[in-house]
Specification:
Strand content: under 5%
Low-confidence stretches: 1-7
Order of helices and strands: HHHHHHHHHHHHHHHHHH
Helix content: over 70%
Number of helices: 18
Largest sheet: none
Number of strands: 0
Structural class: mainly alpha
Mean pLDDT: 83
Number of domains: 2
């Protein structure tokens, strides 16, 4: 496929960003009413089951899609179409094998997994998610192959299909089981999770059909490597990436088990009280994950694009992608994280009126700051992985994770801190990991990135925006006595306007950045960006 026909770095990122934004909007339409239907206890059951699923899913699918995308993009850069095909076939077989093993663990070991988390009620949901692991494994193979060919649209469409099915099937099942069949909230949570499984099945059907539609006879006559050699290289690339990616999920599981265990064992809280506290924390986590979700678009495009640039020994192009990806990360992540911090309690009250908004707001405020570091960690992980420094993210995440576990184990047993230890530990963990990653990116890059130039202006603009949001909310809600929804809406609108004006006034984004976007030069002229 000619480069001109492929989606550009930011063109592909824009497609994924749009898809992910829509997916997260649908996800919010799913999670917010679902958590209000289930209450804090049911939300804890849902999150506990999903944490087990996420960990096994990461182990079985995190590294291989990246390795597949990297090897396919490298093969295409060298004109080796037959090599790209064989890489896909070998990867697909590996995905199915790992998915089957994960299914067995979740299906037959559901009670054991739920017991590890000190919440036996989560076993229903764990079993309901088991079939999804195999489907997502196959999905990841198709998505990795498409992204390695710089086709991001199929991934975005398949994610939207998953989200819509989860929304309609999951919510309907949860409501039916709880209010019509009068089953427990734990069973209703499992019903909602069944919507996730059905979504992965439909998305897999779409991706398989898309693959067949775009499959053409290779025009190149290259001789592909042997399957064993390809598998060996896939494993060499995938294992370190899997270890670094799975660190987050594994640490989350350990953290969940420790915090819930300490609340029950050290502080003497009952299972119901623990579920309520952790359910509130889980509701805040749904909002905290939104900024990081947009990083999927950038990381998915950074790895194949940077890998191809490094393969061509294009030093200027490599530096351009690194700087632009870091700057765009700051432009997106900083205002979202600071916005969550500024309006934490009003947002919790708006999204989850049945919950303790004061508790939820204090948890979300800390998580909002943590989300900044999560986004920086994710993009720097991708930069390091594209450079072949795949072991570095493992080391940095391991250091941050060990600190988080020790922090949470100690402070969750302190009565005045209890559940508040969870978000504080998250902040400490990702701050350490992100800062260490930035050091390694600087040492790895041939052209050293100027971090103050990349990050200071977006941070200042985001801080100004956040204090503006707090001030506008106080004016509308306290002085003018408007309701919480109108006050939050007004504060967000004012914050968006202030941030946009500051981005232009401080010249945070450059014409060079915009030139990577479709019609970017025209946009730069209209906005008078140089």
């Amino acid at each position: 496929m000619a480069m001109g026909k492929k989606q550009s770095f930011f063109g592909g990122a824009a497609v994924l960003a749009f898809g992910i934004a829509l997916v997260k909007l649908i996800g919010a339409l799913f999670a917010i009413p679902l958590f209000n239907i289930l209450g804090e206890g049911g939300a804890a059951d849902f999150n506990n089951a999903y944490n087990i699923y996420a960990a096994l899913l990461t182990v079985s699918t995190a590294g291989l899609p990246v390795a597949l995308s990297k090897m396919v993009s490298e093969a295409n850069a060298l004109g080796r179409e037959r090599q790209a095909r064989r890489v896909f076939r070998v990867s697909f077989a590996a995905f199915v094998t790992l998915g089957a093993l994960s299914f067995a663990i979740m299906w037959w070991g559901s009670d054991f997994c739920a017991g590890l988390l000190h919440n036996p009620n989560a076993s229903y949901g764990i079993r309901a998610l088991a079939p999804a692991v195999i489907c997502v494994g196959c999905l990841s193979a198709f998505r990795g192959y498409a992204q390695g060919n710089f086709r991001m649209t199929p991934t975005a469409v398949s994610q939207i299909i998953e989200a819509l099915c989860k929304l309609f099937v999951g919510l309907a099942l949860a409501y039916y089981l709880l209010h019509v069949a009068h089953r427990s909230v734990s069973v209703a949570a499992a019903g909602a999770i069944a919507g996730v499984t059905s979504g992965t099945i439909l998305a897999l059907v779409y991706m398989a059909l898309n693959y067949l539609r775009h499959r053409t006879k290779p025009r190149a006559d290259d001789t592909p490597d042997a399957a064993g050699a390809i598998l060996k290289r896939l494993i060499a690339i995938a294992v370190p990436i899997t270890l670094s990616s799975s660190m987050v999920s594994v640490i989350t599981i350990i953290d969940t088990a420790l915090v819930q265990g300490q609340l029950q064992n050290a502080l003497g809280y009952t299972l119901e009280v623990t579920r309520r506290l952790y359910g509130t924390y889980g509701a805040g986590m749904k909002l905290y994950n939104l900024p990081a979700s947009l990083m999927v678009a950038l990381t998915a495009s950074v790895i194949p694009t940077l890998s191809a640039s490094l393969t061509r020994r294009d030093r200027a192009g490599t530096a351009r992608v690194i700087n632009s990806s870091l700057r765009v990360t700051a432009l997106l992540a900083f205002p979202m994280g600071m916005g969550l911090w500024a309006l934490a309690e009003p947002i919790m009250h708006l999204c989850y009126p049945r919950y303790d908004s004061e508790l939820g707001g204090s948890l979300l405020a800390v998580l909002g700051i943590a989300s900044l570091f999560v986004c920086v960690m994710l993009i720097t992980n991708s930069i390091l992985q594209a450079h072949g420094r795949v072991s570095v993210p493992i080391l940095t995440m391991l250091i941050g994770g060990v600190v988080k576990i020790a922090f949470n184990y100690h402070f969750s047993a302190v009565p005045d801190i209890n559940i508040h230890a969870a978000p504080m530990g998250t902040l400490v963990c990702f701050a350490i990991s992100a800062l260490l990653n930035l050091v390694f990116v600087y040492r790895t890059s041939a052209d050293k990135p100027d971090y103050p130039a990349l990050f200071c202006k977006p941070l200042l603009a985001s801080l100004a925006m956040a204090f503006c949001a707090k001030g506008v909310y106080a004016l509308l809600h306290t002085r003018l006595a408007l309701g919480n929804p109108l006050s939050v809406g007004g504060a967000v609108a004012a914050a968006v306007i202030v941030y946009f004006l500051l981005v232009l006034a401080l010249q945070i984004i450059t014409a060079e950045d915009l030139s990577l976007l479709p019609k970017g030069e025209k946009i730069a002229k209209i906005l008078r960006i140089r």
